[in-house]
Write a structure and sequence with these properties.
Elements lengths: L9 E10 L2 E11 L7 E6 L6 H17 L4 H9 L1 E5 L4 H6 L45 H13 L5 E9 L5 E5 L11 H14 L6 E5 L10 H8 L6 E9 L2 H6 L16 H23 L1 H4 L3 H14 L7
Parallel strand pairs: 3-4, 3-5, 5-8, 6-7
Antiparallel strand pairs: 1-2, 2-4, 6-8
Helix pairs in contact: 1-8, 5-10
Bound molecules: zinc ion (ZN).
Length: about 325
């Protein structure tokens, strides 16, 4: 049935990581149409090895999507029109070892060459002093970061419309959807489209009002964010590319179960099974929304007058004085 829908899965290996006498693959999975001109959604997780819940959220959506191929014509028509890219474990060695960084001690979300335009908090914003300290930036692009960039450039950039969602956890009491930049307070390219998507979600799902959809710098600024890097590299590439980081507010789980602080992974992941399930349920609606928004981008992308209004609204909210 999957084949009939043109939806057979394709596994792609982007590189290998030597670890403990073995070679671990850096892989992604593609589902949906192979048409190069189709819109695309990329789902990423596990950039920080300790944030296993991000990988679990991506895999939970993949599971439901594939299971629904057995009975849902809507899933089939979605996959006939959209290309889906899944990279649920960007940092497999970090995940095996239960560390945020990769095997070289590098924080992959500080690893791109982008320098923040303002002073960032040290060492949280990224540091090159020592790999033994957290948030180490490394010296060159690490293989995992290169693989993520390759996945984006190969399968998302240059399409008429493409969107990436990168799932993380560990910051604050709220679930946040961050868009670029992390390293600059400037408005990102495609601000009007980002605002249109935000408005679309808020108006379609008024009861899912647990996401703050905001630029990342509002919370903290960093050097080397990979999504900043990809956004800047491709600001003039054809097509529309948007990226969001889902930062699941893990303090919510910690507050309800303080004992989980005794385990380091408990800072970043819900420990109790019912809470783990609840987190997985919570974000399925969002990912389903994103897939449908990608599929129907032509129906909601703003025209010129609306783009102006959306940019004004964004300026009012965050970019006061920004003349873009
Ligand atoms: Zn993270």
């Amino acid at each position: 049935m999957a084949r009939r829908a043109g939806a057979q899965a394709r596994l792609e290996t982007l590189g290998w990581l030597p670890y403990a006498g073995q070679q671990l693959p850096l892989q992604l999975l593609r589902l949906g149409t192979r048409a190069a001109g189709a819109p695309a959604l990329g789902l990423f997780g596990g950039v920080h090895g300790i944030e296993r819940i991000g990988s679990a959220v991506v895999l939970a959506y993949l599971h439901s999507l594939v299971a629904s191929l057995r009975w849902s014509g809507l899933t089939h028509s979605l996959l006939e029109r959209v290309s889906l890219v899944f990279m649920p474990v960007v940092n497999p060695v970090g995940m095996l070892r239960g560390t945020r960084a990769n095997v070289h001690g590098v924080d992959l979300m500080r690893n791109s060459p982008v320098e923040a335009s303002e002073k960032v908090p040290w060492p949280l914003g990224g540091q090159r002093l020592s790999r033994r300290l957290p948030w180490y930036r490394g010296q060159a692009l690490e293989p995992e970061a290169a693989a993520l960039c390759q996945a984006v450039e190969r399968h998302l950039i240059g399409r008429p419309f493409a969107l990436a969602l990168d799932c993380h956890s560990g910051y604050g009491h709220r679930d946040r959807l961050w868009f670029p930049f992390a390293g600059s307070k400037a408005a990102p390219p495609r601000l009007a489209e980002t605002m249109a998507l935000r408005e679309l979600f808020l108006s379609t799902y008024p009861n899912h009002n647990y996401y703050d959809i905001e630029p990342q710098w509002l919370h903290y600024m960093t050097h080397g964010d990979l999504w900043d890097h990809l956004t800047l590299q491709h600001r003039d590439s054809p097509g529309i590319f948007l990226s969001f980081t889902l930062e699941m507010g893990s303090w919510l789980w910690v507050r309800k179960n303080p004992l989980q602080l005794l385990r380091l992974t408990g800072l970043f992941n819900p420990v109790k099974p019912h809470r783990h399930q609840r987190v997985l349920r919570r974000h399925l609606v969002l990912i389903d929304f994103l897939a449908r928004a990608v599929e129907s981008h032509a129906l909601w992308l703003p025209d010129a007058p609306r783009r102006d209004r959306l940019r004004q609204e964004a300026r009012r909210l965050w970019f006061d004085g920004e003349q873009r």
